[in-house]
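Translate sequence into structure tokens.
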Amino acid sequence: MKKIYLFDWGDTIMKNFPDETGKMNTWQKVQPMPNAEKMLRELSKYSDCFIATNAKDSEKIDIIKALQRVSLDKYFKGIFCYKEIGFSKPTTEYYNFILNKLKANKDDLVMVGDNIESDIIGARKFGIDTILYDLNNKHPNYKGVKIMNLIEIIEKINSTEAQQRIKCNNKIAHSSCYET
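Result follows.
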């Protein structure tokens, strides 16, 4: 079982509201994604969870404040954000920073996110296992590990077959991520 899970922030852990602008912690309304709290409560019992985000407006303290508004902050060991790192996903510099900071190996990590390019393909090209969070099934032909409900992460990591599919993600080239 993996020890470290990296979660994208917007539309993976916290809902992005298109009509809101600026730092999420100042938005009138903040809301976790469906089942985020239930999944994090269980997963954080045996794995370390981190936010890995490209958010350009928010610094680490702003992200913490937004997570506090919905009581999710307690589940995260840390936050990796663009403003701290100076690089964004999917660059190798971004992921190298995280590996060095955590003193981890690529095999220790799983990236969970909703964006095929920055969260999934980028992490996979770097050698990090991935899980696509596809709430509205925007990518029906995606061949890698995909969930439509965050609570499925718990089911997937307890499944030997899913562990093999997560591993296979690293071998799937970008052009073959979709069925033809």
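Note: Residues 120 and 130 are 6 Å apart (CA to CA).
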